[in-house]
């Protein structure tokens, strides 16, 4: 690998070359001007005189000139690159909410502005392309609703054993569409940079558990809520947090046998946890499920659908994490401490 | 119960009306807002099932306009806008409930039943959940025509749960409804009332009807009458 070209290194080399050429030229000048004087002296005295002249007229001026110039130039260079380092830190800090992110060009040195603007243009084009993709996905999902509704209503009229099975398939498609719409909405919100609001995790959990409980009870299962942290407030998008929790509970319901209980807990700390009676999920398996939608691997064997990928996306947008503890069979939404 | 289904897709409208009819409702269909106006002028409806995007206007605006001048039956909107906040805009505009397309007839029927049980424009003296009947006038309950003996507080509790059958009634809502300010609530008062009520339902051969969602509230299962 070739050595990366550093501006400072090149400057030091350039200044070194200037020093060298300057020295040679000055030496030549000194030799030329004083050659007449030197010829009248004996060799010993001429040598002493020559060295004295060299020191006074060559070495000293060069040192006086080159040392401060080098120091100043290196300083200027370093300062000129500070905005670039800051921009790099900003870009790194934007991890998880890249949508709508632009590099601040106001602090950039004039020479770096065209590059910054080109990068910002590129970011705009990438955002637009992502938005077109999402809008398309949302449109498709939206358009599928009507034929799916008709199908589901027609099946309702059929008095046949197969109809029940087919209705389940339609319900699964409907769920997938809902999830696609939700995903599009999360991304649209992230792009619009809607500010989070102080949100009570206990309130959200109580609403979500209350609204989803009838479905779970109808399946012959139970759900309960423990609130360890009733006063906990985090900065969040309430609807998004509710959607994340709902997805976790739906996931837990799927793996919990009839007669089992899904336990939802608020706390300790800024955490919403869902415990099920399934086999538990290892961190590796969770990572696979979360990343599934990024790969071309959409065949769902467990019926988990896009649920966990959506949850992970919502948590990333909140600066939080989705974690799993296979020992306690628990998935948790961990928010940053307020 | 007579319903008006306002939906511009005629096949969908017919299928929804058919499904609701098979569940015991009488249904009229309007394919646009003009037809809906005509229907409203000619008949008394108990509830409206309203689509939002109609050829001659938006269902929400139509509903809000009518609410200003007339007594309107409760309305349940069908919305295709399923994502996050959009769901709630209809409720602000005067709809009483919403369902997200593609809707299941069972879900729609359950929502309509819940709507009709709410205290509202046309208060019904009798609330029914399955074979359980509650007479709001003399505050008495019966199961399959057999009387259930209830205290005043148990009757209040049963009415509240029946009006919201199929949904979880939060604990604090029950506390607020059953106990006044100068009537201190002991921590176990609600639990005690619930367990007495559950015992009475169990004895009257309606087990597995009253469910506890620990940490949240209580739910009476919704069963079609």
TrEMBL record, chain A:
InterPro entries: HATPase_C_sf (IPR036890), HATPase_dom (IPR003594), His_kinase_dom (IPR005467), HisK_dim/P_dom (IPR003661), HisK_dim/P_sf (IPR036097), Sig_transdc_His_kin-like_C (IPR004358), TCS_sensor_his_kinase (IPR050428). The keyword Membrane applies. It catalyses: ATP + protein L-histidine = ADP + protein N-phospho-L-histidine. It is found in: Membrane. It is a multi-pass membrane protein. Its EC number is 2.7.13.3. Keywords: ATP-binding, Kinase, Membrane, Nucleotide-binding, Phosphoprotein, Transferase, Transmembrane, Transmembrane helix, Two-component regulatory system. The chain crosses the membrane at residues 14-38, 58-77. Residues 139-338 form the Histidine kinase domain. SMART domains: HATPase_c, HisKA. GO terms for molecular function: ATP binding. Pfam families: HATPase_c, HisKA. PANTHER family: SENSOR HISTIDINE KINASE CUSS, SENSOR HISTIDINE KINASE YKOH. This is histidine kinase. It comes from Novosphingobium album (ex Liu et al. 2023).
UniProtKB/TrEMBL annotation, chain B:
Residues 124-222 form the OmpR/PhoB-type domain. Gene3D superfamilies: 3.40.50.2300, 6.10.250.690, Winged helix-like DNA-binding domain superfamily/Winged helix DNA-binding domain. InterPro entries: CheY-like_superfamily, OmpR/PhoB-type_DNA-bd, Sig_transdc_resp-reg_receiver, WalR-like, WH-like_DNA-bd_sf. Residues 124-222 bind DNA. The modification 4-aspartylphosphate is found at residue 51. Residues 2-116 form the Response regulatory domain. Keywords: DNA-binding, Phosphoprotein. Transmembrane segments: none annotated. This is Response regulator transcription factor. The lineage of its organism: Bacteria, Pseudomonadati, Pseudomonadota, Alphaproteobacteria, Sphingomonadales.
